[in-house]
Write a structure and sequence with these properties.
alpha/beta; about 425 residues; 2 domains
């Protein structure tokens, strides 16, 4: 089976490389000539552990290729995945410009039966929008070619995407005709051997499933952050509470880690998008709206926490920031809590010294006016406080005596609850964290 993946961003590149790993012939197409040139030269434009090896192996074995000639890739493939960006609009809705453009290109290039699959996270109804745009292009040219549309949302965690694709919790496929469903099931046949659960449904349900999943996980994060804030007011321990409720099988322990709020390419955009299109159809998602509000307030609360830790005034202070990406094992800075936290510190008159193992090149595009350091210890040099923002593994066992010697004042603000308060206080630090 020949497959075309249009868009070589995070979702598209991982999807294409992993299908090639199954033995499928895959062409990844993108209009960005520089990105395609990088990929053809063996350079991976995103940071994802293990992806470089998968790409290199499948290119070498002839199953994976890259092109800027989207029309040629469409014509030579049976299944076409749309995996282009769907950025958020200012009003919270989703910008479908790239999806629309691809749909029109497919309509102009289609030369036989195809299954056109929406892989990008899109509002409910987008697959039908794609169908209508393809049909409109066919009518312009007088063509009469049969095709199907389908929805196959991705559930890839950045930093663990290869494992998530190869050993997924579930595969969701939405299609309205038997031919498309049969082809999609055949494409994912290798996962049947692993007894992967399949959810086979209609298109609208598949599209909404991705939003429902991300909104629910985001809800767990905002919930535990509110409990953490309550713990600070009454002397509770949010980690003990998270364990106490997480051991209940109906709740589960994942996504119950208090911190500075959620970020990344999915949760902020998807919760806003879900809330927006729900309002549009007259069915407000009140819980999701509250989750978004709590998350915004949580990031602002972290700035206040740092301000209090350095004496109530940020003016003239130097703050050492450890971790900038929205989570470990990625360089993704999209909606990272660090962006709001650093901006709040700078607005308060502080200078910021920062270190992140992989995200500094991306961070520098968004935060050009701070100092980037070679390691965690340099970030602490003459700082009035060390603030742990992203829980990279290498920050979990810092040489605390060395940190204390580097700091101007022995102040640590741990926004990920990596360290234990009692030993930190015993080591001579003024230590604050979240919900403990």
């Amino acid at each position: 089976m020949n497959v075309c993946v249009i868009g070589t961003g995070y979702v598209g590149l991982v999807t294409g490389a992993c299908f090639a790993e199954f033995g499928v012939n895959v062409i990844c197409a993108d209009k960005d000539a520089r990105k395609i040139e990088m990929l053809e030269n063996g350079e991976i434009p995103i940071y994802e552990p293990g992806l470089d090896a998968v790409v290199e192996r499948n290119v070498r074995e002839g199953r994976l290729s890259f092109t800027t000639e989207t029309a040629d890739a469409i014509r030579s493939s049976l299944v076409i995945f749309i995996a282009v960006g769907t950025p958020a609009r200012d009003d919270g809705g989703t910008d479908l410009t790239f999806v629309d453009t691809v749909a029109q290109e497919i309509g102009q290039a289609i030369n036989g039966y195809k299954v056109v699959v929406t892989k990008s996270t899109v509002p409910v109804g987008t697959s039908y929008r794609v169908r209508d745009l393809i049909q409109a292009e066919l009518e312009k040219s007088g063509g009469d070619i049969d095709f199907s549309v389908a929805s196959n949302p991705e559930f890839l965690r950045e930093g663990a995407a290869i494992a998530d694709f190869m050993r997924p919790d579930r595969i969701v496929i939405g299609a309205d005709d038997e031919a498309a469903m049969a082809i999609m099931k055949d494409l994912y046949r290798p996962l049947y051997l692993n007894e992967t659960p399949f959810v086979l449904t209609n298109i609208s349900t598949a599209e909404l499933t991705k939003y429902a999943a991300n909104a629910f996980l985001a809800t767990k994060i905002s919930f535990i952050n509110e409990i953490a804030n309550l713990c600070e007011a009454v002397g509770g321990d949010v980690q003990a509470i998270a364990r106490g409720i997480g051991l209940d099988g109906r709740i589960g322990k994942k996504f119950l880690h208090a911190g500075p709020g959620f970020g990344g390419s999915c949760f902020p955009k998807d919760t806003r998008s879900a809330a927006f299109f729900a309002r549009e159809v007259g069915c407000e998602l009140s819980v999701v709206e509250a989750v978004i509000d709590v998350n915004e307030r949580q990031k602002a609360r972290m700035v206040d926490k740092i301000k209090a830790a350095v004496g109530g005034d940020l003016a003239g202070k130097t703050i050492g920031i450890l971790g900038l990406s929205f989570k470990p094992e990625t360089d993704d800075m999209r909606d990272a809590p660090a962006l709001d936290i650093v901006a709040g510190l700078v607005a308060g008159g502080a200078s910021v010294r920062a270190f992140d193992p992989v995200a500094m090149p991306e961070a520098a595009k968004l935060l050009p006016d701070i100092t980037y350091c070679k390691d965690a210890y340099e970030a602490c040099e003459n700082a009035d406080a060390m603030v742990l923002v992203t829980e990279w593994n290498q920050f979990r066992m810092l040489d605390l005596e060395r940190v204390r010697q580097k700091l101007r004042n022995p102040v640590v603000v741990d926004l990920r609850n990596v360290y234990d308060p009692k030993p930190m206080h015993e080591a001579g630090f003024s230590y604050s964290c979240v919900g403990r």
